[in-house]
Amino acid sequence: MDAVVDLIRDIEGRQGKAPQADLTAARGHQRQAQFHLHNVEAGNSTGFHAPGEALRILNESTNAAARAA
């Protein structure tokens, strides 16, 4: 979650300073990262029934956030 929040703050800080195409791409990665994060959170679980799958999805979230940076 920290990676997603940091990314959102970074995108907000780059408003008006970075090319619009870069911001659009970063927002796309942010949406993907947030989707994966919410997927795990919406299940109201930390992976009790499938910890490996929850970890895989969370890794997808952090990877998407890293691609935007």
Write a structural description.
The protein is an all-alpha fold and 69 residues long. It has helices at 2-13, 20-42, 51-68. Helix 2 (20-42) packs antiparallel against helix 3 (51-68). The longest helix is centred in the middle third of the chain and has 23 residues, at 20-42. The radius of gyration is 13 Å and the shape is elongated. The mean pLDDT is 90.
Largest sheet: none
> What would the principal axes of the Cα set say about the shape?
elongated
Overall pLDDT level? 90
**SSE string:** HHH
* Residues in helices, as a percent range: over 70%
Number of helices: 3
Count all strands and give the number.
0
Stretches with pLDDT under 50, minimum 5 residues: none
Cα-based radius of gyration, to the nearest Å: 13 Å
Topology of this protein?
Blueprint: H1 2-13, H2 20-42, H3 51-68
Helix pairs in contact: 1-2, 2-3
List descriptors.
69 residues, mainly alpha
Quick take:
The chain is an all-alpha fold and 69 residues long. It contains three helices and no strands.
